[in-house]
Amino acid sequence: MHPPPPAAAAAAMDFGQNSLFGYMEDLQELTIIERPVRRSLKTPEEIERLTVDEDLSDIERAVYLLSAGQDVQGTSVIANLPFLMRQNPAETLRRVLPKVREVLHVAGVEMQLTAAVSFLTILQEESVSVHTYAHSFLQVILLHLDHRDTGVSNAWLETLLSVIEVLPKETLRHEILNPLVSKAQLSQTVQSRLVSCKILGKLTNKFDAHTIKREILPLVKSLCQDVEYEVRSCMCRQLENIAQGIGTELTKSVVLPELIELSRDEGSSVRLAAFETLVNLLDVFDTDDRSQTILPLVKSFCEKSFKADESILISLSFHLGKLCHGLYGIFTPDQHLRFLEFYKKLCTLGLQQENGHNENQIPPQILEQEKKYISVRKNCAYNFPAMIVFVDPKNFHLELYSTFFCLCHDPEVPVRYTIAICFYEVSKLLNSGVYLIHKELITLLQDESLEVLDALIDHLPEILELMSTGGESSVQENKLSSLPDLIPALTAAEQRAAASLKWRTHEKLLQKYACLPHIISSDQIYYRFLQRMFTIMMTNNVLPVQKAASRTLCIFLRYNRKQEQRHEVIQKLIEQLGQGKSYWNRLRFLDTCEFIIEIFSKSFFCKYFFLPAIELTHDPVANVRMKLCYLLPKVKSTLKIPADKHLLQQLEMCVRKLLCQEKDKDVLAIVKRTVLELDRMEMSMDAEQLEKEKQQNDGRPVSDKTFEKKRRDTKTPTTLPKSIPISVPGPSGTSTPSTSKEIKKSKLIRSQSFNNQAFHAKYGNLDKCASKSSTAGYTSSVSGLGKTSVISLPDDSFRTRNASSTPTSFPSNPSLPSTSRGTGNSVDPKSSGSKDTQPRKATLKSRKSNP
Question: Which regions does the record annotate with the repeat HEAT (predicted)?
Fold first, then answer.
């Protein structure tokens, strides 16, 4: 298990008001110091010394700068060494690398660090073979391991540890292992012996057990008994890697005795290292070793921990989960109880010392101690799921509920943040007992810190599903009674997120709200959440938040089966967004249309949103028309032939109008690309409707049971088998030639019209086609479409009674326009597939919208 990320990391990119003022002050300071900076520019003599002949090649320039340049230029060359190796490895090794060796002998800290990184990059990029790398770079790395600066020495050590992974055994033995014998002696510096410890830990996995036992383990034992506690601690932490390389038997006979001795060391850091290594190696030891050797050590360590340094408590609290897992089944009942009480004590460590003093009045050492206590409680929260397994979930209420309550109400944000991260794991472990922590869920949802809320909502849908289906209240009608405060807590959480500057938390919360149809009733959603989604879409200034609200609203609508409520939502979407005065709202309407195409059936979109969407081709704002052009291929994908032939004609007329009348060059360019894409698209065909019409044309009766299937929300295949005969009734109901011929003819005509408009010999003069006499009649028909167009629309299936014809401008009365397919496909299954539905006429009016 790994520790949770720090609470501050979740809000690293969010800027508060105070930080913004801080940035403004910094900018003001920069303007103040701008003049002195300009006065301190390089003199002509300095510029002359820094100038290099531009005709030099990269290799020659690098050699010159390393030989005669300044330190900053040499550092730049070394940083550029991986590029030179990729470009010309042979010349770089022959001419540049020797100069790098010379410079590094007297180089400063910055150049040394840069060289260590560059050497590692060359290894990772495999610019040369392993043999060449070892021959050219290894000795340079080994030479600088003993650098007097600890940071430089550690940087070269990290490079060497990566090199050890790829070097062959013989090279490792001669170049690294053999010299290590002398470097690990007491006569060497502490830094040299520390480096030897880490190298030994890495070498163990590269040799066989016999070599390790004969050549490496003697060095390991010597360093474990070093006179310096730093060396003993460092070697102790490498024993885990060594144990993995030598196997179980040698670990029990060699490593375990050393760990036992180090666990009794006089140095607290050595004892801590021994304890952590023992915990990490628990799986290696058998049951006898755990019960007879390790358990007494752990017991002694826990008893002495409160008397020792607080850092030991921090480590102990962090490893409690592994300890419980590794020693599970070994504890006696008395030991089990004592260990549990020890954990409970750690969970409240420092809370008893709370007082009302001002933080400025508390001594620094007390503040530091309280910070360590907070870390202990945070680690306890992190290990809480492991403790549930330790006590058995059945005993949670009796043994751990009070501790869980304290962690959820802890006064420190990092503790509550960590328990919020673990809340989902706790819920899964409790299973049928999840109802026990309902109140704590509400508490964390109402937490004043948005960091806690952000951590909780990562798994909010899964938590709510467990809450609604698990426990004693698993019956559908009892869902809400088990979570009486859930809805107020969710709405309050959203309002707090909206009022903050942390829009990512707000966006995430709105996305998670999409699970609510599975948790609460549609009436609750309609009255408590739907209008809020509208408000966010209309008023929020953050685009990702608006889109999240739009998608969640579409999901709410998808699962709402009440006709009146659905009717009202659709009407609001069209009137307040699609026909809104603000172009920003109209853009959000197109986003909503995209979500509707994704979530709903094709027939639903065609019935309610097809015409309002393509009506935006008349929008006065270029950005709206441009966004619509990008959406048109998805809009066309919702159509089916032959049922939606009239809608396809509407779409083509809108595209032709854009081609001829569009004045904005960016929009026109997108229109032309969209025409190509639309023309390449294959139309979906309604097999059910085609079979109906085929049987009608053949004079056979049609069985209603054959076609009384529910429309699923899946996409219809784009093509049908060629063996299916297809026919389409004419306008007057008479039989016509096969639909396949008609489709080919229609596609040919459409392709010709698009090609004539989009790919005319005079490609750049399409916007002037309205003035050409050859297209006078066509332009007249298009302009006529912009004013009025009579189309057939079936009855609105949201109403059981017949609705009167309504204009597509969508007035505020309850009736909605319907542009469904000729088959009468709708949400109401009773009216689906009805042949008796009489079409009605509606007038499509162009809307004048203000940007």
Answer: 216-253, 255-293
Query: DSSP readout, 788-832?
Result: --EEEEPPPTT-SSPPPP--TT--SSS-------TT---S-TTTT
Query: DSSP code of 834?
Result: -
Choose among 831, 827, 848: nearest CA to 608: 827
Q: Using an 8 Å Cβ cutoff, are 115 and 107 in contact?
A: yes
pLDDT of residue 767: 40
- Quote helix, strand, coil % in the chain, to nearest 5: 70, 0, 30
Among 399, 229, 402, 380, which residue's Cα sits nearest to residue 313? 380
- pLDDT score recorded for residue 183: 85
| β-pair type (684-685, 640-641) | parallel
Which has the closest alpha carbon to 243: 214, 209, 270? 209
Of the listed ranges 120-129, 243-252, 839-848, the least confidently predicted one is 839-848
Cα(440)–Cα(454) distance, integer angstroms: 16
Tokens 């794991």 label which residue? 425
Question: Do 504 and 14 meet the contact criterion of CB atoms below 8 Å apart?
Answer: yes
Q: What mean pLDDT is reported for the chain?
A: 78
DSSP string spanning 122-151?
HHHHT-S-HHHHHHHHHHHHHHTTT-SSHH
514 near 551, Cβ under 8 Å? yes
> What's the CA gap between 688 and 394, in Å, rounded?
55
Please tell me what DSSP assigns to residue 448.
Answer: S
Which DSSP helix (H) or strand (E) runs through 641?
strand 640-641
At 769, is the secondary structure helix, strand, or coil? helix
Task: Judge whether residue 711 has pLDDT over 50.
Answer: no
Task: Confirm if 100 and 66 have CB atoms less than 8 A apart.
Answer: yes
Residue in the block written with tokens 């002195």: 36
pLDDT in tens, 490-520: 999 999 999 998 999 999 999 999 999 999 9
DSSP assignment of 664-707, as one string? Answer: -HHHHHHHHHHHHHHHHPPPEE-HHHHHHHHHHHTTPPPPGGGG
Instruction: Please tell me the predicted confidence (pLDDT) of residue 780.
Output: 35
Burial class (CB in 10 A: 0-12, 13-18, 19+), 563: middle
What's the DSSP call for residue 520? S
End-to-end CA distance of the chain: 55
Whole-number Cα distances in Å, 630 to 58, 169, 184, 510, 590? 47, 60, 69, 26, 10
Confidence of residue 610 (pLDDT cuts 50, 70, 90): very high
